[in-house]
Amino acid sequence: MVTLPLPSGAVPDADASFTDVHGQVCIVMTADCLPVLFCNEEGTQVAAAHAGWRGLVNGVLEQTLSKFDEPGKVMAWLGPAIGPDAFEVGSEVREQFMAHDANAVVAFKPHNDRWLADIYLLARQRLMASGVTQIYGGEYCTVSAPETFFSYRRENRTGRQASCIWISTECG
């Protein structure tokens, strides 16, 4: 997690960025992982998070929300990610989510000897548990829309989608 702007020349390695500076862009690059964009109700604070399954398990959304003055008054947008019919995971992934919240069970469907995971539902659960009630997006599948989105799972090598958010210099 980094707060922008950074000192000149700094190149961070982080799964999320936050700013309250007009014109400063928060950006996340994804192929199948879930990009989540945040904005407070006043439009004075924004953030972007890269929420793959590891990031979700390790609390990237909660860490991002902690940067906001009033986390309960934040809106979240779930960008394009691998959909619930394509995101196949092993039992170890399911168990990590279940260890955090038993309600995660509804986000997993048995599929052969593995599980299909709904990353959108898992993110919604984490956001709602943190007090976020305004959650939008979450209806695209990067794997099943090759004409629209890049997907590492589909192609084994790929480009990336950029999800960006900033505070317009005309605001406030």
TrEMBL record:
Pfam families: Cu-oxidase_4. It catalyses: inosine + phosphate = alpha-D-ribose 1-phosphate + hypoxanthine; adenosine + phosphate = alpha-D-ribose 1-phosphate + adenine; S-methyl-5'-thioadenosine + phosphate = 5-(methylsulfanyl)-alpha-D-ribose 1-phosphate + adenine; adenosine + H2O + H(+) = inosine + NH4(+). PANTHER family: PURINE NUCLEOSIDE PHOSPHORYLASE LACC1, UNCHARACTERIZED PROTEIN YFIH. This is Purine nucleoside phosphorylase. NCBIfam families: peptidoglycan editing factor PgeF (TIGR00726). The lineage of its organism: Bacteria, Pseudomonadati, Pseudomonadota, Gammaproteobacteria, Vibrionales. It comes from the Bacteria. Keywords: Hydrolase, Metal-binding, Transferase, Zinc. It comes from Grimontia hollisae CIP 101886. GO terms for molecular function: copper ion binding; hydrolase activity; S-methyl-5-thioadenosine phosphorylase activity. Belongs to the purine nucleoside phosphorylase YfiH/LACC1 family. Coiled coil: none annotated.
